[in-house]
Structure formats: C-alpha cells, structure tokens
Amino acid sequence: MKAHVLLDHDDYLPRYVLITEAKGSDIKMADAFPLNPGPIVVMDRGYNDYSLFGRWTKEEIYFVTLLKENAVFEVVEE
Question: Is 74 within the bounds of a domain?
Fold first, then answer.
C-alpha cells in the first residue's frame, strides 16, 4: 500500500489522503489532489512530469522534487 498525503500548511494536519496499491504509478495520482494557488508540493522522483510542472507553475502551485538522473536542463538564471 502507498499513501499520498496532502498536508494543510497552517497546522500540518492531513487535508487529503489517498491510499493506492504500491505497484501503481505515482504520477497518475498527482491530479487526484485538489490544489488552489499558493501551496508548496514536496514529492519524490515518481511524480516527475514536466508538463504537470508547467501547468502548476501557471497555476501558482510551487513544487520541490529531485531531478531524475538523466534529466536534461539548462540554468537560465541564478
């Protein structure tokens, strides 16, 4: 079993919990969470989806994750 948990930033209590089979793909669960502008989503590499990241950026949903080892990227600003 795998638990996908959305914590409320104000009190760090679970606002949403989704239980799935462990063998299922994590990225399929990313759209299961109702997100409003402003949250910070922290996730592992299983959720890496650049089109999702682009959509979240437009919707002002911030995220932190690890890059996949084979990720191709370019630093455009520091």
Answer: no
